[in-house]
Every structure is written in C-alpha cells, then in structure tokens.
Specification:
Its cofactor is Mg(2+). This protein is of the alpha+beta class and 375 residues long. It has one domain: Fructose-1,6-Bisphosphatase, Chain A, domain 1 (2-Layer Sandwich), CATH 3.30.540.10. The protein has 10 helices and 16 strands. Helix 8 (283-291) runs parallel beside helix 9 (309-321).
C-alpha cells in the first residue's frame, strides 16, 4: 500500500473533524413569522391502522418532539444577529468544559418528562439532563423512555496539544467548546425513545431546522416526514468501504493515548480509501442519516468519546427499521457480548456501551470495523 503524504493526511483529518453538512432550512413561514406544522408530521397511517402496542405512546412522543423543537428555533433564528442573547442560553458545564447543557436542554427535558409522567405515571424515564454526571440507570422490564432534549448540544471537545499523525508531522487542534445548537448550526434534534422489555421499541426524532421528523416502531418500519425509509436497499445493500461516506464522532478525550487512538483510526481509513468522511456533531442524526442513505456508516468509541443511551435509543430503532446493522466496535464490557461471546448487534445492542458502529449493510460494518481497529 502506498503511503499517504503527511500533508494530505493533515488536510483530510482536519476537514473530517470540522465538517458539518448544512441542509437548507425548509420550514414554511406564515403570517407573523409563525411556522406551520406540516401534515407530514402526523403518525403514518401504516402504524395507526396496525395492531402496534405503543400507538398512544407514539402519538404523545410526536407531539412532545414537535413542541420541544419549537423551543429551539428562537435561538437558531437569532444566532449571529442583533437579536442574539447568548446569556439566555444559561450554559452550564457537566463533566467537563466541552460537555455542557443549555437552559433550553433543561426546559425541553422537564417539559417532555412532565407530560410523559402525566400520561404514563407507571413508566420509567431516563433523561440526559436529569442524569447529569450521575450513574445512568439500568434498563428493566418496565416501559422506559429515554430522552435527549437536544442532541447536538455537545460533541466537539479537543484539547490543545500536539497529535502525531505520522512520525514526521505533528499538528495542534485547538480546544473547541462551541457546538451545534449553541453555535447555531442546524444539525441538532429532539430525541425520544421508548424501551419495552429492556430493548428499544420506538423512536421519534425531530430536527427543527431541517424540518424533518423521523418515526420508527419495531417491526412497523421507519419514516421521515411520513414517507417510509429505504436507505439500505438497492445499491446501498452492497456498498463497500472504498465507496462509502464514513462518519465518525470525536469526543472529549484529553489524553494523548485517547487522541492518538481516534486520529489513528481516521488515518487508517484514509490510507485504505473511502469516498469521503464526515463529522456532524449529532449522534442521533448520524444514525438517522445512515438510515436514509445520506451516509453509509458511522462509528464512535475509539477513546472516551463513546455515547450514552439517549444518543443511541431512538436512532437505533430508526436505523434498524430502515434495514441497517448496528453493533459494537469492540468489547468494552461483558454486556457487549451475547451468549455466544459475539458482539451484540441490532436490537440486542447494549445501550450503555462506549462503542458503536452502524452501517447500511453487514459487510460494510465488518469491513469498517477491521480497518478502524487496525485488524
């Protein structure tokens, strides 16, 4: 294999880290600047007419996701203008400076959890902001909602230190604390998942600035704005790594070992050859975009950047119902393995895991895993 010039590696890795895909804001405006909610945001009739066991939960989740999305739009519309008031975000840090919550995160979660408690008082709720830096509750057989009030609030947190990509080159990544929602980038969403019998069963994801509502129920399909997702069919079913759009998410790792692991994985991808790479800053949307074929594979968990249950749950159902495969990059705990000591996958996926890979077909998932892990 020919060696990639260090300058190319540097440019490609830097672009991959910083890249974000901007979709046109397609919300229709009415009089007074009010946003009209499209009829495409209704629960698909294929589900309403079925014997789905969670229809009422789904109807509630759609309403709550749309309402929570409205809470995000004022900040988006004012960002970078004379109307912007950054103090109104009331940003507070959690585990570190690059892991923070805004006042709208807290407002959304309190609203969503409150409405769920009213409608289903016997259900459990796991929310990102309520959990904070504490221990994440384990799933039981009770119906459990998993909420991310704004996914895309965190992700980019690089320490300012030298990272060696090649023995002859080193460069510095400056610490970045601004992230998608706080920065006004459109790639963020409200994510509401429901687990039954300890496994994801329903997912609702609303991205207000791209005006997209994803709905998925186990065994009943996945939909975007009322249209069924088929992102893993046709040519996508046989996509190989050298033709793939590969997404990865870098996290808060501040150790040289952790940073080296993340960057070395990207180096191996570039040396192998891929169509292109992306880092979008929203794990939930990463999964939804793989599900609808905008990207081919996404991974996380090379270092301390692994996700949490609220990053996985709703997006997992969307991805599974679109025909994707989702598993772990490697074993991080015994709970990542099934009874045959193989890595769990799909609906058996361990939502508390620190590593994940999801792709449009199983061969691509395995090929990407081997390259990323250096196997």
């Amino acid at each position: 294999m020919s060696k990639t010039p260090p300058s190319l590696l540097l440019a490609a890795a830097t672009v991959a880290v910083a890249a974000t895909t901007a979709y046109a804001f397609s919300t229709r405006k009415g009089t007074g600047g009010m946003t009209h909610i499209s009829h495409h945001f209704n629960v698909p009739p294929e589900i309403l007419k079925s014997d789905c066991r969670c229809k009422q939960e789904l109807i509630l989740a759609v309403r709550l996701a749309l309402e929570a999305g409205k809470n995000m739009t004022e900040h988006y519309h004012s960002k970078g203008t004379a109307d912007e008031n950054i103090e109104s975000l009331d940003i507070s840090t959690k585990s570190c400076q690059s892991d923070f919550a805004t006042a709208i995160d807290v407002k959304n979660e309190n609203f969503i959890a409150g409405e769920i408690n009213k409608a289903f008082p016997d259900h459990e709720i796991i929310g990102e902001e309520d959990t904070g830096t504490g221990a994440i509750p384990q799933l039981t057989t009770k119906p459990t909602w998993i909420i991310d009030p704004i996914d895309g609030t965190v992700r980019f947190g690089f320490v300012s230190q030298y990272i060696h990509i090649d023995t002859s080159i080193a460069y510095k990544l400056n610490k970045r604390q601004k992230t998608n929602f706080a920065s006004g980038l459109p790639l963020s969403c409200v994510s509401i998942g429901l687990c039954l019998n300890g496994q994801p069963h329903m997912g609702v994801v609303f991205a207000p600035m791209t005006n997209e509502l994803y709905i998925a129920v186990r065994n009943y399909g996945a939909f975007r704005n009322g249209i069924r997702l088929l992102g893993c069919t046709g040519e996508k079913a046989s996509t190989s790594l050298d033709h793939a759009v590969v997404c990865f998410e870098f996290g808060y790792s501040s150790t040289q070992v952790g940073i080296d692991r993340m960057v070395d994985a990207v180096k191996r991808l570039l040396e192998h050859g891929v169509r292109t790479t992306r880092t979008l800053g929203s794990g939930v949307l990463d999964l939804c975009y793989v599900a609808c074929g905008r990207m081919d594979v996404v991974y996380t968990g090379m270092a301390e950047e692994g996700w949490k249950p609220w990053d996985y749950c709703a997006g997992l159902v969307v991805a599974m119902e679109a025909g994707c495969e989702m598993s772990h990059l490697e074993k991080r705990s015994e709970r990542d393995l099934d009874f045959n000591n193989a890595l769990k996958k799909n609906y058996e996926f361990n939502l508390h895991s620190k590593s994940m890979i999801c792709g449009v077909n199983s061969d691509l998932v395995e090929e990407t895993r081997k390259v990323v892990m250096g196997q």
